[in-house]
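Hi F.,

I've been meaning to write this up properly since the lab meeting, where we talked about keeping a consistent format for the predictions we share between groups. The idea is simple: the sequence comes first, exactly as it goes in, then the structure tokens exactly as they come out, then a line or two of notes. No screenshots and no reformatting. I'm using this chain as the first example so we have something concrete to point to.
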Amino acid sequence: MQPTYLKVRWIHDFPDEPVELYSELDPDRYEVRKVEVFRDGRRVRADESTTTGGTLLGVVPAPTLEEIAEDGEFEPSAISRVEFEEAWQSAAG
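Output, unedited:
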């Protein structure tokens, strides 16, 4: 089974929290890699062995797109592997 890729826009006014979250999920919906994008353009990332900027992988399976969308603060969408890889590389340095 192929990984799943998500992008979630987080609508809030917290200056120190990310506004976009990108996740690569394994078949059991656990995060394998994650990118967080902040309002000021800063990008941080995490995988199973490395983390930048304090971001960490989730410890429980990610909810479905429908479950995430139930909370009005979040706008989730499925994305391609290419789009995830672009976000991953943009957070590399």
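Notes:
Residues 18 and 24 are 17 Å apart (CA to CA).
Helices lie at 65-69, 81-90.

If this format works for you, I'll send the rest the same way.

G.
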